[in-house]
Amino acid sequence: MALMYHIFFFLRRYVMLLILTVLSEYAIWQINVHLMSTVFIISYIFSQRPYEEPWANLHELLNECFIFAAAYPLFAFTDWVSDLDARYNYGWFIVGVICLNVLFNMIVATVLVISDACKKLKIYLIRRRKLQEFKARHLQYLAQVSTNNLTIKLKAKRKASTGKNGKNGKK
Question: Which of 61, 73, 142, 171 has the smallest C-beta neighbourhood within 10 Å, fewest atoms?
Answer without folding.
Answer: 171
